[in-house]
Structure formats: C-alpha cells, structure tokens
C-alpha cells in the first residue's frame, strides 16, 4: 500500500504529515542553535546529505506510524517527491549546515530515548502550554462530566482538595465552564461517565468561542504533572 493510499484509507492528510515533518526539522535546527542537541562529527562537517542517504531517510521516517503494516508509509513521498524534486533540490542547496545534517539523520540517538515515554512527553507539553490547563469532574447527578478552566488560585485549591470544598467552606470559584471540542479524541471519552478517568486534568492548546467555549487539541495529564511542572 502506498503512502497516499494509506492516508486516504485512514482519513489522514499527507500534506499534514509533511508539515509535521518539516516542523520537526525546524525544531531540531533551533535546538542545535541553542546548544541542546549535539550533532555527530559527520553531521558537523556541514556537507549535504547524499541522494542515497536522503532516500533511506525518506523510506524510514514514517515506518513507526503503524508497525503492523511493516512500514506502511514506506514510499509515501514517491509521486509527491517527484513533483517537488526540483524545488527541494534548490532548498537543499540553500539550507543551513544544521538543516542538512538533520536531513541526513546525523545527531546522537540518545536524545530520543524518552520519545516513547508518554509521561515525559506530557510533562514537556504541560510546561510549554501552562497555564492553559482545565479540570474535569462529575456533575452532582453522577452521569455527566463538567470541564472547567480556571485561575492559578483555583487550580492550587483543586490540587490540594481534588475539587472538594476547602477547609474554610468557601464555595466561591473563579472558573470558566468549557467543553471538549467535538473534533478532539477526548470529546467522546468525557461524554461517557463510565470512562471517567483518574487523571482529570487537561493541557490544551487553544480555547475557542462559538456557540459554547471549546477546548481544542487537549491532552489528559496527571495531577502530579500539574503540581511539578505547572
């Protein structure tokens, strides 16, 4: 199955995947400039990647998306790359040594050792998005879930008491009732009280207002992550 066919079959956007890959390349360049990534001696030479190296990179870059297909996205760029080959060759010549070294895959692999650790990834995500955090709790009827975004003071109170009334008995709250956007994978999850999760916190990228206030691009995070990295 070709990459384009796979994307169509599973309702994925090939261009979006390409955009994600370009963003990853840009992030690596920035991290190198800031000194967080150290290229190998081969990558430090500043030379461009050979055609065979680029081909190997293209064939393997999406293999981890669906292991059971044995690299189902292998060859994903075949027709699209042929159409863009001229432009990419020009961009390759204009790119910086850091960009060229990334495209050849020449940086220490230990920088990716926590890539499969969702706890670490979510902690990094929270530290970048904070204070864009929301909390979910069951409504008094026990059948629906209420999601709220709130101030730092209210967030600290919830972390101490897990959403219960504080010691002074105060019920005054500075919160904003929000809803998980229907396009989010978490939308159907919070709609089902049977799936009510232990980790009732969300980090979100944006809050949008239409008929209601919605959270988009949100991820479930643990209270420990909020306490440590918020």
Give the SSE string: HHHHHHHEEHEHEEH
How large a portion of the residues is in β-strands, by DSSP E?
A: 15-25%
- Number of structurally distinct domains: 2
Number of helices: 10
- Share of helical residues: 40-55%
What is the average of the pLDDT values?
Answer: 68
Question: Reading side by side through the largest sheet, how are the strands ordered?
Answer: 1-2-3-5-4
Major sheet attributes: 5 strands, mixed, barrel
N-to-C CA distance: 43 Å
Structural class, by secondary structure, is alpha+beta
Instruction: Name the poorly predicted regions.
Output: 43-52, 58-76, 92-104, 163-173
The tally of strands reads 5
Net shape = globular
Rg estimate, integer Å: 22 Å
Protein name: DEAD-box helicase OB fold domain-containing protein
Region (Disordered): 40-113
Domain DEAD-box helicase OB fold: 121-230
Biased composition (Polar residues): 89-99
Please explain how this structure is put together.
43% of the residues lie in helices and 16% in strands. It has 230 residues and is an alpha+beta fold. The protein folds into two domains: 3-113, no CATH class; 123-229, no CATH class. Strand 1 (133-138) and strand 2 form a beta hairpin. The longest helix has 20 residues, at 14-33. The radius of gyration is 22 Å and the shape is globular. Mean pLDDT is 68; it is low at 43-52, 58-76, 92-104 and 163-173. Residues 40-113 are annotated as: Disordered.
How would you summarize the topology of this molecule?
Blueprint: H1 3-9, H2 14-33, H3 41-44, H4 51-60, H5 78-94, H6 97-103, H7 118-129, E1 133-138, E2 145-150, H8 152-161, E3 175-180, H9 186-191, E4 201-209, E5 213-221, H10 223-229
Parallel strand pairs: 3-5
Antiparallel strand pairs: 1-2, 1-4, 2-3, 4-5
Helix pairs in contact: 2-6
């Amino acid at each position: 199955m070709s990459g384009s066919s796979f994307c169509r079959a599973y309702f994925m956007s090939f261009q979006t995947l390409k955009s994600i890959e370009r963003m990853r390349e840009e992030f690596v360049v920035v991290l190198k400039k800031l000194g967080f990534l150290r290229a190998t001696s081969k990558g430090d030479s500043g030379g461009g990647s050979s055609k065979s190296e680029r081909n190997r990179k293209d064939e393997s870059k999406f293999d981890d998306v669906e292991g059971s297909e044995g690299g189902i996205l292998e060859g994903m760029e075949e027709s699209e790359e042929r159409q863009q080959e001229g432009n990419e060759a020009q961009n390759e010549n204009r790119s910086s040594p850091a960009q060229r070294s990334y495209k050849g895959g020449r940086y220490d692999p230990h920088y990716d050792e926590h890539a499969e650790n969702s706890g670490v990834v979510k902690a990094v995500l929270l530290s970048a998005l904070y204070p864009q955090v929301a909390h979910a709790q069951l409504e008094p009827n026990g059948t629906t879930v209420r999601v709220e975004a709130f101030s730092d003071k209210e967030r600290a109170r919830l972390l101490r008491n897990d959403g219960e009334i504080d010691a002074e008995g105060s019920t005054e709250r500075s919160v904003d009732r929000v809803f998980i956007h229907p396009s989010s994978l978490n939308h159907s999850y919070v709609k089902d009280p049977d799936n009510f999760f232990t980790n009732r916190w969300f980090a979100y990228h944006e809050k949008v207002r239409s008929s209601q206030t919605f959270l988009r691009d949100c991820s479930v995070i643990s209270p420990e992550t909020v306490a440590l990295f918020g």
